[in-house]
Design brief:
The chain is an alpha/beta fold.
Length: about 240
């Protein structure tokens, strides 16, 4: 029996792409780098946390092209295990500019996707617990949940010290503990390969959404078993 539905944030419950793009471009500009990235490219930067997004932006600046090549950056490949120290230091410098700027501007253009507030309300009316587990910095996750979904989530967590980010299962396990549920009593809902990997490592099913930062074709190639086209499709899957 499903007792909880746990959501990713970016590209799943919130359309954050414009604010992410604006904040990334501003941080890159302030640090003297290419800063004219378009949202359709930036959608491939995010999913694995802000530091990885910045590394991908720097890779494009250096001439890397193609979805597959970009997604390998930050994916744990051997070259990522021993990154160029100078490149990593530069990415971390940009991150220190990005994080406070994004925290201040994360609600400028961000909106809930169609049907999401109604879906979460319907889940709660059915007695289902709801939560957010995101690689977005926790200092952005908390105000976004409070402002755009007041009172709708039983638990929310973003990237923070002491917990490995997705696709490791640390944050999902913290969520299980907070909600007092077993892994077999939850499903995870997300839009990227990271969400599929996270759910697999935590031992729970993943429902993918078609409206997020990755295409349906891409998700299918990675073995996504359940993909929904509209938010209202999720409730009957959970309560059946």
């Amino acid at each position: 029996m499903i007792k909880a539905v746990i959501f990713d944030m970016d590209g799943t419950i919130l359309d954050t792409l414009e604010d992410l793009t604006d904040s990334l471009n501003e941080a890159m500009r302030r640090c003297g780098h290419k800063h004219d990235y378009e949202p359709e490219l930036v959608r491939f930067f995010f999913g694995s946390a802000a530091l990885v997004a910045i590394k991908r932006a720097l890779a494009v600046e250096a001439g890397i092209r193609g979805e597959a090549a970009l997604l390998q950056i930050g994916a744990g490949s051997p070259s990522e295990q021993t990154p160029n120290r100078e490149r990593r230091r530069e990415a971390e410098r940009i991150l220190r500019v990005y994080k406070p700027y994004y925290a201040e501007h994360c609600r400028d253009k961000t909106r809930a996707y169609a049907g999401i507030p109604e879906l979460i309300g319907g889940l709660k009316s059915a007695g289902i617990l709801t939560a957010v587990v995101s690689n977005k910095p926790d200092e952005a996750v908390q105000p976004l949940c409070a402002d755009l979904f007041p009172g709708l989530f039983d638990f929310s967590i973003g990237e923070k010290e002491g917990l490995r980010r997705k696709p490791e299962s640390d944050m999902l396990k913290a969520c299980f503990d907070a909600l007092k549920i077993l892994p077999g009593e939850a499903i995870y809902v997300g839009d990227t390969e990271i969400d599929l990997q996270t759910a697999e490592r935590a031992g729970i099913p993943c429902v993918s959404v078609s409206w997020g930062f990755r295409s349906v074709e891409f998700l299918k190639r990675l073995g996504a078993k359940t993909i929904i086209e509209r938010a209202e499709e999720l409730l009957p899957l959970v309560t059946a």
